Prior knowledge:
The chain is of the alpha+beta class. The protein is built from 7 helices and 4 strands. It is globular and about 55 Å long.
Amino acid sequence: MVVTDDVDIAVTLRRHRAHRLQERSSVVVSATAPYQAGMSDLSAALGLAQLKRLDEILERRRLTEHLYFTHIQSFEGIKDPYVAPEVTEMYWFLYLVHLGTRFSRSSRDAIIEDLRVEQVEAAAYCSPLHLQRHYFELGYRRGNFLVTEKVADRAVALPFHSHLTEDQIAFIVATMKDASINVGAGAAIY
């Protein structure tokens, strides 16, 4: 959902969305194809209801971010998400951490598996563009951008929502610590 008071942005977004059912019988000539990014009426209603609680939701997400940050500081093997110095506000849609340089792709995958065993929904996150299908067909291969690949191979998306408790976040970070020892990487230093 996008909310804006800018007429130009609204018109551009409408141009890119999929046609609604009632608009499909008309012929629309446009310079750009729709992205098929339609939203159900139920999703729109939910979004409008959440807008009324936006300040409360964002405050709870800031608290969740702060709790992760606090617990991650005790683990040298995890680097919290980067925020540039000039950024004054950040609203995460997920909490992406990077494992230290001693970790490999396979050790990251083992850590994620250990988290799954403990019923923590973490995921390998970040597939470099040059390794995605379209770019592969253009001739790009693993090894073309080594730094990008190394960073992506150590990225982990942790659960992030406004209902996480401090105990749950402490458990997630502690489980990652234990898992890092299990894969033999120990406390990785940057």
